[in-house]
Write a structure and sequence with these properties.
Two copies of one chain form a homodimer.
Chain A: E1 2-3, E2 9-10, E3 16-22, E4 30-36, E5 47-50, H1 74-79, E6 83-85, E7 115-117, H2 124-129, H3 135-145, H4 169-177, E8 181-182, E9 197-198, E10 204-209, H5 218-230, E11 235-238, H6 245-254, E12 260-262, H7 264-271, H8 281-294, E13 298-301, H9 323-335, H10 340-343, H11 345-355, E14 358-361, H12 376-394, E15 399-403, H13 412-422, E16 428-431, H14 443-457, E17 461-463, H15 476-497, H16 503-514, H17 518-524, H18 528-538, H19 559-572, H20 575-585
Parallel strand pairs in A: 10-11, 10-17, 11-12, 12-13, 13-14, 14-15, 15-16, 16-17
Antiparallel strand pairs in A: 1-2, 3-4, 4-5, 6-7, 8-9
Chain lengths: 599, 599
């Protein structure tokens, strides 16, 4: 790992090489994968895994964040010949909170002209509905297969998901056309490595970052981005508040190989000095254009909060905890009108259609405590989100739906069932949910429990929660902990859904564990550095990396060692034959009712 | 917090006071609870929570580990007049691995004579079946109610559990008599604060500790015990291997207010130089007596592993991962006989009956990987454990059943369903399960997901997993992380089961959060120190402890603040009345189908 002056961490992960798989329909596309090489003694091929880390883990790519990442989509977009470059909206002082001089984050050098549609919608959904397979779609399809030819064991419970043995570009197209998946890819974000979000694909995770009124800087933000995707974040949301928002976001986008989402309302509120009542449609619309031209891939829009929903929160323990939701609720009450997000929703869709910005319909009334989970306010808003989804789809705009929040385990499935039913199977994107309120400081864990379950039930993307949730701003370590924790939740969900590729990594690591291939065990894990460090705290010697025991039991007691001795001994004693006879006879060693318990 | 020379952490937790509730049937019993005091502005009574931490958190109790804890059960045991003190087995050099001189952990000073039954079984089950309510039973019953009078909201899904609104001593008795619960309490462990383990009580957690051949010392072990129960461990298991086992265990027991479990096989194997084939029933039996006289409360016995089960593991990815299971499997194959644990099981029960040692029937064939979950070997052994349970019950011996291990989410419920059916609803005691194999270094999290779910489905006690699982020996921080993580899983399970008292703490903390009572939020959390530290990293000033905002959003953006403003404003606008009308009319603001979504 190389630490750049800007504290960027680049370079390959241990024993890993970046490999690129070309397209078939689009031979020029190069889909990045991470190949994890194993010890020769393993007599196994390398394991190829999904790789969201971008060029930063490719030693052959020179990284300079003031140049940004290479443009890989420009040619595809131009070839479609349905967009034009134009002058674009001039940056206004308000965009950066009127900050000046040394306090102003420098503009990203060499900004190019934005593009927008010349006519009809230029969204992946519009193409999909016309039967077109785009380069983005093939790119995303290849990623989903993780270089896999064989189909793994599929004994999961999918709750109605329909994950194919292999993902084809046409399958991606059809899922997007049906609204069951989105491919967030603003035409002004050509650095993007396309990916797809949907219930019938690998479960994805999002990492939030962003400067705030209280603290944190632009360079930290780009570093957090690179750091978050290094560990597996599939998308990031820039939730910056305070000043320098515009320039910071430009630096993030030009260096982001993953989709970037925002909550435009946050910047709009900054522009009116933080007074919700002073927000107007014109100012909000202008902010949408500003961010659309920069290349933001998805917008969180809290258009589902209706005036008549607000009283439903009156008896809640924690009221309205969504920032966007509370801002709009205050606006609605102050003006006693429906919000401009709701009344101007069609125009919002037109903007999204002209740049291919996906909508992430915000759950402004999500519960903020176990006490408020699944209440009337939450589900009333969800129904409105379903209505808005239909409107967005008439504009060919891609949509996902945001979900809770704080939900005890027994109320989680109802959230997925209702969301699928009310929102036409649009992808669900949930925050956690936290399954208890009593562990601030550990809410990455209280929420990983809920996230794994809601992912299993059908949530397409899980928004991470860090240990600092409710308490403070995540630092570098918190971001990593949040991302790894959510990779665990997403993978546990894929295993339980019976994803054809999910078990390959578990089995490879378990074989390494059983065969005492310590280095392989570290290298195959989600966080090789931590696994190796923990091991070395007790058994530092290099010799122990090949030792046929570990520190838990010591040499004499190692169950795996004994187990291997047993296997060898038993084989001498014809155990294989015995086992063989068992497999034939089925009930030879077991009562009949047990002979079919293989889960 | 006071740090003793022996690194013991004592003293109350923040804003907490130790309170004692007297018995009714047994007025002399004093049941410890932790009272968490809230800020006067809360206008709420203090919250009383379950307290497993023992006298160490009572400032009025002087702690000296060389004196051990006060004897609180001696009089109760004597009053039953069914046991005698006797000379006891002399300590043999082999008990401490023949270690001598400076390397020998000193004997605990002033050992008193052990007691044993003069005739019939002296187990809590024997008393319960005779209709007797013991002091231990009333003690445990009072603990379960956590000083609660009111019954909380019970909207959970209990999967057949039958948790009463309030736990009575008679209910504890009846659950023990039915075998659905155990109260582990060796008559030679008078320092014990009795507690009950069963599906119809609060979900409990166990923390493992123990010296190993590779590292760690006696003082560390007592400190780990005190540290583990400070954060909420309900029982501890001493899994020591290597030397000094006997003396270390004596120090642990004399200072343990919680039940202590062991795997006697580990010490027995030490006595034969780590050669499984050399184990004999006589040596094992002698080890059981040795530990019974010291006061071990429950024994893990791997008697369910039958000779014919071994071939069922031949095709596993990770073979036999249970240490006890692999040792006995090797013995069985070497002698080509059923294990002495199986053939002498009745004698094991007689020993347990004479000291009231609970049996924890070990799952020697539990899966060690996702690939091996719910396989024929695992469930074949589980059926044998069911048969052994019936035998133990004929001896009035209390029994719980150990469970996996590594299990993907979709295969977890089958484990509980089979265990309840095959083992007559004896309490289930599971390790995790880990829901994926790919995150060594984070297995407290991969397993917390499975632990919360399996607890919800009906597991009575969850054995913790620390971040060091598979990699090394847990240190102090790992033990705390493991315990807090498992308190989260157990509490999430209680919430989902609809335990009448579970939500009180969530709601109290959520109210504190909504009202910006930062100190209350910290003090009500499972780990006040970490919550406060994380908050102060971003907002150190004391003033911020009363600030009506936090670092995530800053002053202008705080959704809770805005939400409160909305509530006030809305109240002026008659929102309360609107809300009231909504509640009467039901569908006034919502379509009919939404009016019944209150989860």
């Amino acid at each position: 790992m190389t630490d750049h002056p800007k504290a960027l961490t680049t370079g390959a992960l241990p024993a890993s090489a970046k490999v690129y798989i070309p397209g078939t329909l689009f031979p020029d596309i190069r889909v990045p994968m991470r190949q994890i090489d194993l010890d020769p003694s393993a007599k196994e091929p390398p394991l190829i895994v999904y790789d969201a880390s971008g060029p930063y883990t490719d030693p052959d790519v020179a990284i300079d964040i003031s140049c940004g990442l290479p443009d890989i989509r420009g040619a595809w977009i131009a070839a479609r010949d349905d967009t034009d470059a134009y002058e674009g909206r001039p940056t206004a002082p308000a965009d950066n909170g009127f900050v000046e001089g040394a306090a102003l984050v420098p503009e990203f050098p060499g900004r190019c002209q934005p593009r927008r549609a010349t006519g009809a919608a230029v969204t992946q959904m519009a193409y999909a509905r016309r039967g077109i397979v785009t380069a983005e779609m093939e790119f995303a399809a290849i990623r989903e297969n993780q270089g896999r030819d064989a189909v793994g064991i599929r004994d999961g419970q999918d709750f109605g998901a329909a994950i194919p043995d292999r993902v084809t570009p046409e399958f991606v197209r059809d899922e997007i056309a049906a609204g069951r998946a989105i491919l967030p890819a603003n035409i002004n974000h050509p650095e993007l490595e396309p990916m797809v979000i949907g219930r019938n694909f690998l479960t994805k995770i999002n990492a939030n970052m962003g400067t705030s009124a209280v603290t944190s800087s632009m360079q930290e933000e780009v570093d957090k981005l690179v750091w978050a995707i290094r560990w597996g974040a599939d998308t990031v949301m820039d939730l910056s508040t305070g000043r320098n928002i515009h320039n910071t976001r430009e630096w993030i986008l030009r260096n982001a190989p993953v989709p970037v989402g925002t909550v435009p309302l946050y910047q709009a509120l900054e522009k009116v000095g933080g007074v919700p009542e002073d927000l107007t449609w014109d100012l909000f619309r202008d902010t949408l254009i500003e961010q659309a031209e920069q290349g933001v891939d998805y917008f969180t829009i809290h258009a589902g909060l209706r005036l008549h929903h607000v009283p439903l929160t009156a008896d809640r323990v924690t009221g309205i905890v969504s920032r966007g939701g509370s801002i709009m609720a205050k606006w609605c009450l102050a003006h006693h009108r429906e919000s401009f997000l709701y009344t101007h929703f069609a125009e919002i869709c037109e903007i999204c259609a002209a740049y291919d910005i996906s909508l992430s319909l915000g759950d402004g009334l999500r519960p903020g405590s176990i006490a408020d989970a699944n209440d009337a306010a939450q589900f009333a808003e969800l129904e409105t989100l379903g209505e808005l989804t239909q409107i967005a789809w008439t504009h060919d705009v891609q949509v996902m739906i945001e979900g809770p929040g704080h939900v005890p385990m027994h109320k989680i499935k109802e959230n997925v069932d209702k969301q699928l039913a009310l929102c036409g199977e649009a992808p669900f994107y949930t925050l956690g949910p936290l399954t208890t309120d009593i562990a601030p400081g550990y809410d990455h864990i209280t929420s990983a429990i809920g996230a794994a379950m809601i992912g299993w039930f059908g949530t397409a993307m899980l928004c991470y929660v860090t240990p600092k949730e409710h308490l403070g701003l995540p630092d570098r370590d918190d971001v990593k902990t949040g991302v790894i924790t959510y990779k665990i939740a997403a993978h546990a969900a894929d295993l339980a859904k019976g994803h054809p590729g999910a078990r390959a990594r578990d089995d490879a690591l378990s074989r390494a564990r059983f065969e005492f291939r310590w280095e392989d065990q570290f290298n195959l894990s989600l966080d090789p550095d931590t696994a190796r460090t923990f091991h070395d705290e007790t058994l530092p010697k290099q010799a122990h990396k090949v030792a046929h025991f570990c520190s838990m039991c010591g040499p004499k007691f190692c169950s795996m060692k004994i187990s291997q001795d047993i296997r060898d001994a038993a084989l001498d004693q014809g155990m294989a034959e015995m086992a063989g006879r068992f497999r034939e006879a089925g009930a030879l060693y077991l009562p009949v009712e047990e002979s079919s318990t293989e889960g």
